[in-house]
Amino acid sequence: MLNGTKTFITNVGHAGLYVIFARTGPDERAAGVTSFLVPAGSPGLRVGQVFDKMGLNGSPTGELVLEDVEVPAANRLGAEGKGFVVAMRALDSGRIGISGQGLGIAQAAVDEARTLMRDGGHDQGDDFTLADMATRVESARLLAYQAAWLCSRGRPFTRQASMAKLHCTDTAMQVTIDALQIAGEEGARAGSPFERHMRDAKALQIYEGSNQVQRIVIARELVNAG
Ligand SMILES: Cc1cc2nc3c(=O)[nH]c(=O)nc-3n(C[C@H](O)[C@H](O)[C@H](O)COP(=O)(O)OP(=O)(O)OC[C@H]3O[C@@H](n4cnc5c(N)ncnc54)[C@H](O)[C@@H]3O)c2cc1C
């Protein structure tokens, strides 16, 4: 029987199946957490508040409320008390997905800046900015492909996934700011693609483990490596 509320859930109300991490034992911290698969139609499961966000408005984010939701033991994902292991594994591959999200936003910013410069004129300052933007995106893309390649071959990829997430999302933030700078007042107009990409990029540095947390993961992997 699951009870509780989880806030900031991506695609809340649209998902058909939720992966829920719940405390199932008295053990301290991570040791007392178990993972469950809970279908969206389960009695007692409902959407709470849906939030207004500064960006990513193509995807709703809100609360998921569980009131006496009965879940059969067959829906347990992994062993009892091993939910933290499931979560960490899901986050590793999820971080490759967020890298892709960052790359998409970053590439769109580069493409829009290019079109603007081609159609509307540019100076050498714009050229240098565009060159740096495109170079950052290419390097980020290679990191993401490396992490995806390791993952698809069943090789360890925790550090590479964190590096890809960190670099792709920091790149998305930086190049969307740069693209808006090139666009000038047109970019700053509400509703322009430049300002939208900048607002969308910010959440990527926060979720699936903030970028500070990625640095903790990367440093831990480096320091503890045999
Ligand atoms: C749009 C959006 C969608 C989301 N979707 C989901 C979802 O579907 N499912 C889900 O479970 N969660 C989701 N989240 C939540 C998200 O995973 C958390 O917001 C994120 O992990 C950061 O945690 P927090 O907000 O509690 O920040 P906090 O942990 O309170 O951290 C606040 C700040 O302090 C920094 N910080 C914290 N600890 C340290 C440290 N030890 N060293 C250095 N800096 C530190 C963080 O990096 C951050 O910048 C979503 C969030 C957003 C914004």
Number of helices: 6
CATH topology of the largest domain: Butyryl-CoA Dehydrogenase, subunit A, domain 3
Q: How many beta-strand elements?
A: 6
CATH architecture of the largest domain: Up-down Bundle
Strand numbers in spatial order across the main sheet:
1-5-4
Q: What is the overall shape?
A: globular
Helix content: 40-55%
Compile the SSE list and pairings.
Blueprint: E1 2-10, E2 17-23, E3 33-39, E4 45-50, E5 61-69, E6 76-77, H1 83-120, H2 124-152, H3 158-183, H4 185-188, H5 193-204, H6 211-224
Helix pairs in contact: 1-2, 1-3, 1-5, 2-3, 3-5, 3-6
The structure holds flavin-adenine dinucleotide.
Can you tell me about this structure?
It is a single chain. This protein has 226 residues and is an alpha+beta fold. It folds into two domains: 2-77, Beta Barrel (Butyryl-CoA Dehydrogenase, subunit A, domain 2); 83-224, Up-down Bundle (Butyryl-CoA Dehydrogenase, subunit A, domain 3). The chain is 54% helix and 18% strand. The chain is built from six helices and six strands; from the N terminus they run E-E-E-E-E-E-H-H-H-H-H-H. The strands form two sheets. It has a three-stranded antiparallel beta sheet with strand order 1-5-4, with no helix packed on it. Strands 2-3-6 form a three-stranded antiparallel beta sheet. The protein is globular and about 65 Å long. The protein starts with a strand and ends with a helix. Bound molecules: flavin-adenine dinucleotide. Flavin-adenine dinucleotide (FAD) binds at residues 8-10, 53, 56, 61, 203, 206-207, 209-210, 212-213.
